[in-house]
């Protein structure tokens, strides 16, 4: 479902601020894979997701989604293939629009628009049913402006919007990092349920090693723009946090002291 072949990305090349963010990363995801991604600051995790999403072009290499080469496509042309949830709960929704209007926009992502009613009666019933699965009471607030929702409610809504049309690939960029622990747990539970129910191919960045172990069927660790550890199946299920900390310490060396608290 996703194939990245030897992708490179350098920011500010040839300057004092040059940063090699991706150094020949190759990654293949089968349909239905749920992969968690961990690594320290500057490891290249978000750069990898942005490259896949088309936020910026890669310097070399190729990216295909669902068998379609998207390497040269900008982000808006990849929108029909990708669902994405960002770290900031304020990103991904239109604050001045109603909940149902946001969902209607998500439902039409990548499709042609025409002059007709923005939200049909049938769609409204569908949205109510989908919102009810979040257990946040949003199904009774379809006409509420999204800007009035809490951060957790907005993030749960963004997750629903990102998966409403069953994307080929779901990208989650630390989507619970800005939430309090209780709310983050609810959003992660919703994530697990939605991904499992629909068999969505998913990449989820997290700094929480426990979450990285518990969720998904595969885990990769990045460091300095490279994938340094890739584990799946039973080997992943048997992992412990201290195992991952040891792997990171072996790769990061002196940098480990600065990243340990974040990764723990």
Concise summary:
With 264 residues, the chain is an alpha/beta fold. The protein is built from ten helices and ten strands.
Report on the structure:
By secondary structure, this protein is α/β, with parallel strands linked by helices. 36% of the residues lie in helices and 23% in strands. It is built from 10 helices and 10 strands. The strands form 2 sheets. The chain has a 6-stranded mixed sheet, sandwiched between helices. A 4-stranded antiparallel sheet has the order 2-1-4-5, with helices on one face. Helix 9 (241-252) runs antiparallel to helix 10 (256-263). It is globular.
Main features:
single chain; alpha/beta; 6-stranded mixed sheet; 4-stranded antiparallel sheet; 10 strands; 23% strand
- Summarize the helix and strand pattern as letters: EEEHEEHEHHHEHEHEEHHH
Number of separate helices:
10
Helix content: 25-40%
Shape: globular
Estimated structural class: alpha/beta
Characterize the largest beta sheet: strand count, sense, and whether it forms a barrel. Answer: 6 strands, mixed
Counting copies of identical and different chains, the oligomeric state is single chain
Computed CA radius of gyration, to the nearest angstrom = 19 Å
Strand order of the largest sheet: 6-7-8-3-9-10
| Strand runs, count | 10
Task: Report, as a whole number of angstroms, the end-to-end distance.
Answer: 31 Å
Strand content: 15-25%
Low-pLDDT stretches: none
